[in-house]
Structures are given as structure tokens and as C-alpha cells.
Amino acid sequence: MSLVDLTPETLASRVDDLMDRARADLAQLVAFPSIHIDPARADASRASAEWVARAFSELGFDTEVIVTSDGSPAIVGHRAGPAGSPTVALYSHHDVQPAGDESLWRTPPFELVEDGGRWYGRGSADCKGNVVAHLTALRALGDGAACNVRLIIEGSEEAGGEGLDELVRTRPDLFDADLILIGDTGNIAVGVPTLTTSLRGVVNVKVTVSALENGVHSGAAGGPAPDAMAALVAGLASLRNAAGDTTIDGLRSDQKWEGFAFTPEQFQETVGALPGTEVLGSGTPADMAWARPAVTVIGLDAPSTDECAAAIMPTAAAMLNLRVPPGTDPRESYELLVAHLRKHIPWGVRVEFEPDAFGGPFSADPTGPGYRQLIDAMSTAYDGLPVQFSGQGGSIPLCTVLAETVPRAEIALLGVEEPMCAIHAPNESVDPGEIRRTALTEAILLSSFGR
């Protein structure tokens, strides 16, 4: 079949015919508990990587599984297009988050189960659903790609991705492309074509407060004795004001988001807020989630309520996750956070900080030639609907590394992870229609890119 025969209608029909295979592919991938941070799952991670490499090799890619510096298996590959044609790179990751408390799942986390029109399983959306979208697009194309295609499938994105970041810096030739499609985001709602143009950066930091050599009886010493937990809680409370705005001394927190924005009611429904709760902050939900910094307590070392004793805690610790918007340096933000907590944690207690997982923010320019072709392809795949531009409060540090290492490349973010997917949570799921539309978008783009 010649390139001119690959009309959007032809590609749509092919993608439709491939959806049963897409489900079978995803079922096989979800069955691998490829959790990089769990050493006991190393065999599953290797098996997942080998499955991915084999699947793309069958489509004509020269693939290689590379064990990166953090021990994770990444898959890179290349398939040549017509002589002199440009290059599109397809990215996703095959590692997943832990299942967590499996009693909270309605279905087995590592078994793909269809329920209510959605496909459930850990990684079904984040990010094995995007791997399957890439595969489905390429199968629909056959040998009809108008460009070279590179492949980048990461094995430790959920753990910070340091291994692939280093590989990009040491082997930039493997990632050189005119357009890089980052398949690790999604639409603002099912069926609404969306490109993500902004990502917040990230800093994780452990804060440890020490006040006593040992715990002391709360009846004998409660009142005058310095209390590590109370001191830590006081410091953490200073990180937000009464409205919910982030209030780290010296860190700007009044930015505005220009573009698509949720209403407060839509946002509340999206996050599953309980009746009567408020949307935090003095800005819109989009301002707060995409354009401004936010700090979240994601871990707390404290006795459980079932095992506690009447004692004043000598030490207490919290893990903080600080997100910073484009234009804000994460390391400078970390220093401001440290200075703020040293000032606001009271009573002269000892405070120690352990930073981890610095990742830069990212902002894309959607006006380049690659973006224009992608926008046209996406709108066509969604029956002519206009493409929306959104931010994402999460972080993909790889985008910053790619922008620095391959400066000529346009970097675009898309995928199957719309708000109902519950990524990182129990009962993760994907709408198969999102896989279909994402695959069709990519197939239309690759059939004509650079022509």
C-alpha cells in the first residue's frame, strides 16, 4: 500500500480491527509486576522489558535492552523510514507503581479485568496503556510510516528515572529526533483531545526533628518538655495559609495559568473530594495545580494510634514533596524550603534535611512545525474536535533532560491517562477508547510527518 492510500479513514479502520489485540497485549503487560523499586520484582521487570523489546522487534525495529545505571532495563530502538526523512521518537515506560493495599482493589491488581467499559489493572493507564497505544499505531501503519521512528521505553520512571536520564546524557544519539512524543499524560476528560504543555518540577525532602535523648512520660514531663512531633507539626502547618496557598518564605506563589481550566466543581469531582470540602488556594484549580508551587506531606514517622504510649516523642520525621512550576529552580526552591522550616519549627529543636529526587519543571512551545502536524493529526483522530492545551501538576524530569540534550527536538506530551484512571491508586483503569484515539493520532501523524 502506498503512502497516499493511508487515509485517516483507512487507519481508523485498522486501529478498530486491532483493539482486541491491544487488549491482549495490555493483559500480558499488566501481568508483569514490573515495580523497579522492589528488588523482589527484578525478574518481572526484566521479563516486561523483554516482552516490549520483542513486540517492537516484530514490527521491524532494531531494539536493544540496556540496563541503565540505576539497574533498570530500558528499551531503545530505531526503524528507518524513507531516505532523508525526519525522525519521530516514541516514549513511554514499562515500570509501574506498587499495588499498595490489595484489599482496596476491586479486581486483582496484576490481572487485566474489564468492568463497566474500562480495563482495570496496575499500569493499565500509567504507563503500559501508552506502550500498547504505540504498538497499535505502528501495527496500523504497517510499512507506511513517512519518517524514521525511534523507540524509548523506560524502566524506572516511577522511581525518578535517573538511569534513563544518565543514558540520555551519555548516548544522545539514541534519542536524537525532530519530534519526541512523551506518552505519559492524557486528556483533560475522556474523548477531549489534549496536549500537556507544562509540567511542574519536583523535590522530595525528608525532615527530621530531634528534641530529646529518649521518650519521656507525658504525665511526668508533658508541658515543659520539648516535643519533637508538636514542633514538626507546627513547622508543617506554616507551609500553607488559611486559604490553602503555599507559603514558603521567598517562593513566589501567585502565578496564573493561561489556557484550559477546570471549574472548582469539575476539579472536586475529578479528585473525588468529599461533600463539604473546599478547593484550596486563592487561585483557580488550574492556577494552583499547574502554575504555582505546592508542598505535600507524603509520609510521617509517628507511632500508630493502635500502638502508641503515653510518651513525648524524642524524634519525628516527615517526607515532603515539593512541586514547582516552570520558571522556578527546584534546587533554589529546596533551599528556600529549608530556610523556611528552620525559621518556623519552634523551640530550638534540632532539624535535619535529606533531599532526594530533584527534577526540573518543563514548558513546551506548541507553535513549531512538528506540533502543528501533531495538532492536525490529533484533531482528525477525534473527529475534528479542537485540541486543548493543559498543564500537569506532576513531574517527568526526563523532559527537561531531553530538552537540554536534544535542543532541536520538539517535545510533546499526550496519552491515555485521563482523570478517571486513578493512576498510582487502587483500581487503576483505562478507557479503551483513549488507547484507540491515541493510537490513531500517532498513526495519522507518522503516516505523513515531514511531508
TrEMBL record:
Xref: InterPro entries: Cyt/Met_Dipeptidase (IPR051458), Peptidase_M20 (IPR002933), Peptidase_M20_dimer (IPR011650)
Signal peptide segment: none
Keyword Hydrolase: yes
Pfam families associated with the record: M20_dimer (PF07687), Peptidase_M20 (PF01546)
GO biological process: proteolysis
MF-aspect GO terms: metal ion binding; peptidase activity
Keyword Metal-binding appears in the UniProt entry: yes
Keywords: Hydrolase, Metal-binding, Protease
Chain ranges of the Peptidase M20 dimerisation domain: 198-347
Organism domain of life: Bacteria
Protein name, UniProt field: Peptidase M20 family protein
Organism: Gordonia sihwensis NBRC 108236
